[in-house]
Amino acid sequence: MKPTIEVLTDKAELIERSQTVIVEKIRGAIAQQGRCTIALAGGSTPKPIYGAIAQKDLPWDKLFIFWGDERYVARDHPDSNQGMARSVWLDQVPIPAENVFPVPTMAPEPAAAAASYEQTLRDFFQVSGAAVPRLDIVLLGLGEDAHTASLFPHTEALQVRDRLVTVGNKLGEARLTVTVPLINQAHSVIFIVSGANKQEALAHVFSAESDDMAYPARLIQPRGEVWWLLDAAAGANLGLSAG
After folding, report:
1. Which residue among 67, 183, 217, 227 is least enclosed by CB atoms within 10 Å?
2. CATH code, residues 4-178+216-235
3. How far apart are the C-alpha atoms of 227 and 204, rounded to whole Å?
């Protein structure tokens, strides 16, 4: 499906538009099927967006939260994606504890934690074997190296096709990440990208010549819809006007 690309005037407009799109997708999924499943992104860009969503009046008991990736740290560590989302969003709304599925990060081996989280997904969606669950929404960011989730350039995680969750590595630092097949199965994938330092990465993502293994976000070609929400600083070289 052809991507929807929107370039917003500045970061404030990016935050506003992102939360609007996400809330619309949440409401739409709940209206259609009685629940919404969403995999959250980490990093600094989505933090104010999550804070804005927390101010909305949503049927929180029908929202089910997963994570697209996680640093292998405790929940109270400053780098924890779970900790960030809880502090600005999930702890601010009456979402049932049993609706939140954090990535386990306290197992001695990251590979065991990845297998555990994969089983959590399979149990929730009631799928087995080669079946891939279909999340309603997957939120993603983009790094300067065009990584997304914890799918980094030229790493083994990019080639995993028979698992839902695997270990991603950034300069030897273990992270847990959902895999390309799980992301690509989603109904809606929403990239949220901010900053002039992302211009080169975006140019490679949308180039016909660039290599997928060198620029991992290129691998995200979902069955459903894909949105690219950019601020003007990030999208300056794409030839699209901000609006």
Report:
1. 227
2. 3.40.50.1360
3. 17
